[in-house]
Amino acid sequence: MSDGDKGQTETRETRWLNESSEGEKSAPEPPQPEADEIDEADKERDDDTSPVMRAGIKLVETAFKGRKRPDDPDTDIFDASNFKQVRNSWWLDRLLPSGVKNYFITAFVVCTSVWVIGLGLRLTVLGFENVSHEIWEFIKERQWQMQPLLLLVHFVCLRLFKGVYSRNFDRAFKHLDVSKAELNRYKRWFLGHRVNFMALGLALPFIVWEVVAFIVSKDFYQTVFGPDSPYLAKIDPDSRNAEVGFLLTLWIFEWMMYGYYCYLMISGAFVVRKILKQHDFKESVDLVLTERHYRPLFTVTAHAGSLVFFFGLMHAGYMFYTKTSWNDGAGMMTLVVLLGVAFTMTWSAVRGELKGEVFGALEELEKSYRRARSKLATMRDVPGIEDDIQRIQVQLKMQLALQQLDYLQTKYESLGRKEFLGLIFKMLAPVGSLLARVIRWGSLLAAIGLGGAAAITGSVKKQDQQPPAVNQAPADPRANAAGNKP
User: Fold this and answer.
1) Cα separation of 32 and 27, whole Å?
2) Is residue 160 within 8 Å of residue 83, measured between CB atoms?
3) 115 found inside a domain
4) pLDDT tens-place string over residues 410-455
């Protein structure tokens, strides 16, 4: 550093020191409060904060009282509103009642009727000589133990899939510049008459496989009822009776509901992709990435993932218990693959929609950084605080541009990562809530059991420690000792 620069630096520093010392001298000292004023101020502060403290204590007490907290319908897939009937062209949903209570009553009646019909068909085939024994053998059949439960799971997933997609359809596009009328047209297309043909088309390969196995498979009865079933010794394995024909009809019915799940996931992803290609987000790209305005687009897929996981657990239990064919396993794998395809389609559509805006914003930030750097290079070191402030402003502008560049790139590259993790967590949410309830009730039962055991133990100890009766002489240890002598 030259002598001139040292002199300029010393001059500025000396001026700043003088100004600060003069400010300290000119600033009057604040009056010190007296002790009474401090006590009154503390009292007023306590009076002001006491309602807040009381509210906090009340909040904590309410939290530990065990009251049921209101559930968020957006996060709870088993919310009652998801079971309500929504206008659509799916023939099975139109046949079922709308109310939640009536819907479950109808589903229970249907599942029970299926079991009773199966029992009636078996008694018709085997005869009515030993009815009690045949009924007991029918009850022990694993296939007929699980079929009513599996059918009930299908009924639950049928309404939940439809409810999740229909209730979240408008919410998914609330941050896009799409009109309500256009969304209604897409919803009518989504839930229109094509749903019946598409559901049947997606389920057709599995239905064909079941029919072919029913006709040509030699070990069909062994596969359905197990090789150790006593029912196999009472029938002709080369023929097909009315009971297994009814089972085939039931499986076709369940595969059609399965095709409905697949249709909703794939068609929902196509609708999202089409709307994103035609419409933009309402806000700027930095606000979209910061506040994650694209998140509602992934909500439906995440809820569908929860349903797929729930259905998969129940179906895996059915497969493991009945030792069924690989056709059910192939159906489960297909459902998981379609869920991944739906998420990938939504993710790629969102990234494609934001790609142009993100690159445009990055280009503008790079231009702003270059202009600021060029301006900083042409600035001269002129003595004075104005020059320093201007130089600092240009440097801050450069730093801000670099930070915005890094922020936008990071947000864009991580787009979909949190949504994918959210999909995994939402898939585990039903199991987690079930485990939480099991742990809660298990802890309650354990506490009741320990309390009862402690009460019984205490009562026994009190009985042992009771004093002898009044008319009963106390035991003489010397007499006991004398009696023990030989």
Assistant:
1) 15
2) yes
3) yes
4) 777 777 676 666 666 655 555 555 555 556 656 666 666 666 555 5
